[in-house]
Amino acid sequence: MAVEIGALLDGKVTGMIEYGAFVELGEGTTGMVHISEVANTYVTNIREHLSVGQEVRVKVLNISPEGKISLSIKKAVEAPVAPPPGERPPPRRRKSPPPNVWSGPRADKSEPQNFEDMMSRFKQTSEDKISTLRRGGDTRYGGSTRRGGRK
Questions:
Q1: Is residue 13 part of a domain?
Q2: Whole-model pTM over 0.70
Q3: Which pLDDT tens digits describe the chain residue by residue (151 residues)?
Q4: Domain interval for residue 15
Q5: How far from each other are the two terminal CA atoms of the chain, in whole angstroms?
């Protein structure tokens, strides 16, 4: 059996390492599937997708001058079907508000706020916090109580 770039072959997983798996292609020929070529999703642990002795279908990606054969499992199977153009997948619902978004106190939560209103509320809240810190009223930020120092 001649191994050529682009060929689809059947093989058997003979060994696994942290970053890939070795696949015997027959007649003593072995190639390696890198962890990034195992599945169409991000793979952190190759042992969750493959096991020694498993029969797999692979595509030959490259043959180096030294004779090393690079293989891909994800390119040997059909790609996931994309929705037709113009058709969008249903929107995903967020379970929690996006991170790092300031949502300070509002007087009336029912009406939408523009940027200027949100910025003025943010400035006012920030100024209030800074004045509290300067007065020493908030002990969380090194206020009026001292530890181990002068009294």
A1: yes
A2: no
A3: 578 888 888 999 999 999 899 999 888 889 999 999 988 888 889 998 899 999 999 999 999 999 899 999 988 887 666 666 666 666 766 666 556 655 655 555 666 678 888 888 889 999 988 888 888 755 555 555 555 555 5
A4: 8-72
A5: 87
